[in-house]
Amino acid sequence: MMEEAPTRLGLTVEGWTRLLAPLLIGVAVLGLWEGIVRWKGIPPYVLPGPVLIAETLVKDWGPLSASLLVTLKVTALALLIAATLGLALAVLFAQSRVVELSLFPYAVILQVTPIVAIAPLIIIWVDDITLSLLICAWIVAFFPILSNTTVGLNSTDHNLLDLFRLYRASRWQVLWRLRLPTAMPFFLAGLRISGGLALIGAIVAEFVAGTGGSASGLAYRILEAGFQLQIPRMFAALVLVSATGIAIFLALSLASHLLLRRWHESAMGRGERR
Fold first, then answer.
1. Residue 199 pLDDT
2. What burial class does residue 169 get, using C-beta atoms within 10 Å of its C-beta: 0-12 exposed, 13-18 middle, 19+ buried?
3. Which of 103, 112, 148, 195 has the smallest set of CB atoms within 10 Å of its CB?
């Protein structure tokens, strides 16, 4: 029986290393950045320092937070729709090989078509700007969920499938009790990827819409700050975009861990594996 690793404040040495190592590197990079800006006397309209960016973020929090909510709304809705449709279509593919061979190529076409190229067309064709942003974000986020979940459903152990057939399980029972649990880690992995992609799709669509002055998300604030040469404000908006992407990834990773930690190897601690 393996001994449990000692903990401090609820974290092991490995846990503290994972937490503190990137944090220390980030602080060092920010300190070096601020030092170079002050030493070289670089003007803020060329490259603002981290301190000025933080001050701008606090000062302009009102309009930036409002734009953040717009971007978050589009991202969350796009991810929800992508997860729902991706899972449903993957289940349909698992039930019929003909349907999978017929429809999967079109999903690939959606994936390989650059969203930058088709976003202007979508915004022109769709009268509602929010709906057009949602469609663009959904296109980017949809494929990883569909692809990963399809692989997961098709990775079911054939011996277990034979066992279910031996006990005359219905197709619904096989799907609910065997195929879906097998595909769950794949689905959650695709969801983590799609979370960031949905944000990227929303930002790209907002950039396209923002050039026409018809959007109010974070990308529009970046464009607006660039036109007005308010570079610290532009960097503050970029910080919010990056922080939002990190928060989405961490939230989805935590959800994946909580769902898988008691039964799947990928989320179990080393000492828990037998």
1. 95
2. middle
3. 112
**Residue 101 contacts by C-beta under 8 Å, 6 or more apart in sequence?**
none
If DSSP states are collapsed to H, E and C, what string results for the chain?
Answer: CCCCCCEECCEEHHHHHHHHHHHHHHHHHHHHHHHHHHHHCCCCCCCCCHHHHHHHHHHCHHHHHHHHHHHHHHHHHHHHHHHHHHHHHHHHHHHCHHHHHHHHHHHHHHHHCCHHHHHHHHHHHCCCHHHHHHHHHHHHHHHHHHHHHHHHHHCCCHHHHHHHHHCCCCHHHHHHHHHHHHHHHHHHHHHHHHHHHHHHHHHHHHHHHHCCCCCCCHHHHHHHHHHCCCHHHHHHHHHHHHHHHHHHHHHHHHHHHHHHCCCCCCCCCHHHCC
At position 171, the amino acid (one-letter code) is R
Q: Which two tokens stand for residue 266?
A: 């990928």
Asked which of 28-42, 98-112, 155-169, 254-268 is least confident by mean pLDDT, the reply is 254-268
* Distance, CA of 271 to CA of 5 (rounded, Å): 9
pLDDT of residue 1: 42
Q: What would the pLDDT profile of 153-166 be if each residue is shown by its tens digit? A: 988 888 888 888 88
C-alpha radius of gyration, the chain, whole number: 23
Overall average pLDDT of the 106-131 stretch: 88
Q: Please classify residue 153 by burial: count the beta carbons closer than 10 Å to its beta carbon, then call 0-12 exposed, 13-18 middle and 19+ buried.
A: buried
- Structure confidence at residue 211 as a pLDDT band (50, 70, 90): low
Residue with tokens 């449903």: 88
For residues 208 and 247, what is the distance between their CA atoms, to the nearest angstrom?
Answer: 25
- State the Cα–Cα distance between residues 271 and 274, nearest whole angstrom: 8
